Amino acid sequence: MTGETDALARALGQELGLGAGGIGQIHAAIAARIFSRLGAAAEPARRTHDAIAGVSYAAVAGSAVLAGRAAGAALPPRELSTTRRGAMALAVLGGLHGDRLEAESSPLHGRMALRVDGRVARVPEDFAGATGRLVVFVHGLFETEHAWTLASEGYGARLARDLGATPLQVRYTTGRHISRNGCDLAALLDATVAAWPVPVESIALVGHSMGGLVARSACHHGGAFTGHVRHVVSLGTPHAGAPLAQGVHYAAHALHALPETRPLARLLRRRSAGIRDLRSAALVDADWEGRDPDALRAAACAEVPLLEGATHCFVTATVTRDPRHPVGRLVGDWLVLEPSASGRGRVAFDAANGLHVGGAHHLALLDHPAVYAKLRDWLR
User: Fold this and answer.
1) Whether 136 and 38 share a structural domain
2) Running DSSP on this structure, what letter comes out for residue 307?
3) The CATH number of the domain where 160 resides is what?
4) Beta-carbon contacts of residue 16 (< 8 Å; ≥ 6 apart)
5) Which of 20, 85, 130, 178 is the most buried (most CB within 10 A)?
């Protein structure tokens, strides 16, 4: 059976091979345009050029694939997903191609689960001293549960100390459809509540970026756990879509128009379902089932209501102190714009339950004193 180190090396070799093949296609398209203008006299040179170039690029691509296989066979077997660095590497690959890894039943695709010290948690065995106040942390795109503790002990440990809450860290493959991850989160929380060692008093869901959308999708999907949800908090979540995902979509469409740039378009169109869903913040299966993901204009996504009975809070950020500053309006926190993070025009948030953090970037929301102070006050 292929292990994680072997599978990762093979995957990297395949990606390098595809990259070499794409460069070869660009080369071929440029050469074809030039030779077409030179006329019949250049036909012998064209045939020679095409043969040599084709063999050369095929050799480079094949060598990359073989090198990946050789490296995978030579590397000692290791469970990368339980280490911080290994998990981060798998998270990037899973964010880019998680839907494909799942379809291929790759060892690099991990099911959604609670994690403790990097390994899959067992409930209730791994939660001695658990309380009935659960705070569930859901990370964002290309992240793992380690993202919450890169610079400090994290919000979870502080909430446990200050409020007596029990933090739960979720890890999932971010390249899957948001709606599929939302469904799995609902099932995971149902199973957790059923096996929890003490009666569950309350659940707070805290999602960073894409994690906020997954949390909303889970609440919409429903389950017994929703009766315990008291707070849903989103940190820098693109409730109205992410401009970078939108830009990549339009760039892929534009690049597909010319033979010389079509390989670049195909590269961009290999982006995962999860990244595609960020374009319009698609939360339910109906937002993508039966639809052309590469269509220039997408149909409107379903309007997903907020979970009744829960307090919905949000945090926005801009790189400028004042969110009304022209730069802040233009780039937001570099990845999400302030109107999208506040759900303006899309989600019926109560502005009184919002917080803006000025002079901060997107990842700063994972560990920021102002965010923690507000989070503690909300959950108190």
Assistant:
1) no
2) P
3) 3.40.50.1820
4) 61, 64, 65, 67, 68
5) 178
